[in-house]
Predict the structure.
Amino acid sequence: MNDILKTTPDFSLDAAAGLLKEHYGLAGKLSPLASERDQNFKVESAEGTFILKIVNAAEPAVESDFQTALLAHIGTHAGDLPVPHIRPTLSGESLAFITNTHGAAHRLRLVSWVEGVPLAETGRSEAALESLGRMLGRLDAALKGFMHPGALRDLDWDIRTAARSAGRLSHVANAEDRALVERFLKRFATVAPRLSTLRAAVIHNDANDWNVLVDAANHDRISGLIDFGDALHTPVIVEMAIAAAYAGLDHADPIGATAAIIRGFHAEYPLLEEEVDLLFDLISMRLVTSVAISASRRVHAEDNPYLTISERPAWTLLRKLDRMNPRFATAILRKACGFEAVPGARAVIDWIETNRKSLAPLLEKPAATYPAALVPYADPAHPMTIASAAERPDEAQAIWEAYCRETGVELGIGPFAEERTVYAGEMFVSRFIEGARRTHHLGFDLFQAAGTRVFTPLAATVVSVEVERDPLGYGCLIALRHEPEGCPPFLSLWGHLAHEAVNRLKAGDRLEAGALVGEMGAPKENGGWAPHLHLQISTDTTLSATEILGVGEPRYLDVWTELFPDARTFAGIAKELFKRQGRSHEEIVKMRRDLLLPNLSISYDKPIKFVRGEGVWLIDDSGRAYLDCFNNVCHIGHAHPAVVEAMARQAATLNTNTRYLHDNIVAYAERLTATLPKELTVAGFVNSGSEANSLALRMMRAHTGRENAITLDWSYHGTTQELIDISPYKFRRKGGKGPKPHVHIAAVPDSYRAPSDWPIEEHGKRFAESVAEQIAVMKAKGEGPGFFLAESIPSVAGQVFLPEGYLKEVYRLVREAGGVCIADEVQVGFGRVGSHWWAFETQGVVPDIVTMGKPIGDGHPLAAVVTTREVTDSFNNGMEYFNTFGGNPVSCAVGLAVLDVIEGQDLRGNALAVGNYLMDAFRDMQKRYQAIGDVRGLGLFIGIELVTDRKTKAPATVFARAVSNGARCRGVLMGTEGPHDNVLKMRPPMIFSRRDADHLIAVLEETFAGVEKTLG
């Protein structure tokens, strides 16, 4: 290059004017233009404005020919691009040939002037830089397929030769600057081999801000591109590196400037991920080349300002880039092109969301079950924020603890992406944007007392355990690597922990899901904060723990969101915590009073507003999750995806009534009856358990011609008047009018409260005598029973499990007296008992009619009656049976989906196994708590009867209600049943897991201990 500087043209203005006249026949005003190795003049003539270029004598002819062919190609394939166009000589040639007074041969080229203001003289707006990217994209797209021998030249400004800068370092006087360049050269040594694998083409190769022109009237629009003297064949991405290197000079946000350029380029000429991944290093090497060449040339041409015009800002930019994490810069650039910030980031986010139900709890209990509130760091004026920023953590903690005592909050949350003024130190100054600070929290904070233990939700390998001692730093910091099946690896970061972990964990240790990670540290060891866990996810597994960015710039929040996704789901916190929707509790209660039936009850003194259900959980409007052990309607879990999908698919296709043919109703009837004994073959579909029982009574009347009912005391069978009339639970209580003459009440066959002198093996027959007595009363009046109706496990009566042989004896008595036997399986059917599909099967009987509802549709209004052909023939008496919505295609699709899940996931087996596990635990509790009189259950239908005295079995109603309310306060829903409301009733979804059971057991242990301490 130094040789070419010796042959730079040096023609006077007059001489240049003469050449213009001689070869182009033009006259006009000539003005010299700066050039590194050629001589350029602006020509203003009557025929237009041009640039006259006198080419350096040392430039090979092939290079001049190359530029000529290049401009001709652009004119042919992208004539609308605002670039110089060649004006032929008087003889029609593209170039003229001249000789100077020293005998040196030069070529002469005249090209059109491109109007505009140099980008260097404008504010370089983001819009202008994106416009530049589009311009270069259009240019390089037009150059696809173009080739010329002159493009294959050796040029110092070719980034592929940037390693030559090492030979020029001796000209860099400052030792720190030399070290800076050496660091970039060392990085480039690992990058250079990858350049040969990239797409290559002819590019402009010198889109510096003096060669880029901006519309004088609109500085947001690029109006031209000039000077193709450095064009060559090289990797396409180099075009972006050069443009970005110059655009970043003296720019407050050089990576943002680069992002704007490549966003525009990518829109016109799509880049590849592997190209963008090298861009940061290529930008750096363009700058290294620039400062190294400038330093070496200064020795030969100290008076040439062109050579050093960009040296100072280039050094400044190199220092900025040196302070940046290249991975973060690359993530910003990838995102600008629409790529993931790091490959696999979105897959990690999706995997965590999809598998959130299987994650182990991060705290002793699932985090969403704690009463939680946001820590007020988003409020710069809050005393806790002020105290924390001033490094007064004890004061900040005292403020938070006082708030928790007042409100009952047990868990503080610091959300992802929250803007905080608490980040006041120098460590939070942005390394990307000059004059900006990092203000947005990129982790997820959980505030509890120092010493609170935290556990990994997923199996992991320990990457590092270290202590960061900076004020407002992390304190003890642990990084874990997770590699779940079907998910790209990712890291989790655990900050502000106690130092005990340093001696307990080391890199390489394997942690299973649920294993202890550490404890929340006190301020003296957690970096000087109120005790909390800073939890963060990194989808970039190459980052070390201290490289993971805990606080980020708002400008790049979309990038940080993919690099460091919100760990809320990983931590097990519900999204509803962050934004309440809908009406307030008070407003809803008032509107219910004004608009709804006044005797429509609300559970709990302090009502809960649920806004979402998921699996075994119900989530209220504050984001608190409650383990649902009570609402047995959602049999296979709240919002089960199979049910939702089946319902939505069929609803989007067709819903109509049973007067028309449809596959679903017969398919469902076939599947449903297949679960029942062979005698029960005919199904009728309705919408609720009450409708099912009413239809059963219609069938009974048609078959027997009778009305007399035998029902168990404290039973409940539905909400219609005829069902209330046979439900002692209703007619014996407030508002009830007692039994009607046709209603005959038999004793509840409760073995726990059977006379002590009854042998256990005789309980069934002894309790059946009560039914025999009712039949005898009817017989004495010349009447007989129409039916016997009972839940196969009396539920409202207190989860009462019928003694062995009871139904066999009762069914015999009723049938001999001419009545039919109806099994109400509305609450206990569909495999809940685990051992069988239907609870009546545990008694070894076959009813004449079975009614079912609640769990049948997993929350969808669906119910059914299944009976024998004999009863059906009697019912078919000429009167049409029609139910507008009963058996509709949507409901039957839902019913089929529920059966699919029960069978496909062996939920009966799960109910039996988990139910037995719970029963064992409750019986173990019974040894420790005298209030537990009886534990009874089968599968996931369980009752715990509480008494004040185990001998007298006096009901402990107050204790039972206290336990139910205490469990509710601890995030578990259950009910109380029985005539004295002293039986804890649990009937969780069939998907209830061993982990869910452990949580229920732990809550009950804590609750029983608390109630016993309070009530004695």
Observations:
- The chain has a mean pLDDT of 95.
- The longest strand covers residues 460-468.
